[in-house]
């Protein structure tokens, strides 16, 4: 059974680019960190190269990211957590408890 891999590759490429920009790194700086030329980083970000898994892992680590395989059934929950973290910018001050204990007045 053949599947279309174009969409996931373009999603990964866009994620690499966004993470690099968030870290305020140039393509050249990222390439230097992972031992790849700037031109190859550019091709990766544009989806113009078939990225090797070892290179993806190196790039992810250089961007302070981790690669994990997530069961499809769990994907909505993981995406929800990521959206929540992005909306709160990951700051503890933006997080609110789900409940509050109240003291009994006797």
TrEMBL record:
Every HTH cro/C1-type domain range: 16-70
Domain of life the protein comes from: Bacteria
Region of interest called Disordered, as start-end residue ranges on this chain: 81-106
Basic and acidic residues composition-biased segments: 86-106
GO molecular function, one term: DNA binding
UniProt protein name: HTH-type transcriptional regulator
Lineage: Bacteria, Pseudomonadati, Pseudomonadota, Alphaproteobacteria, Sphingomonadales
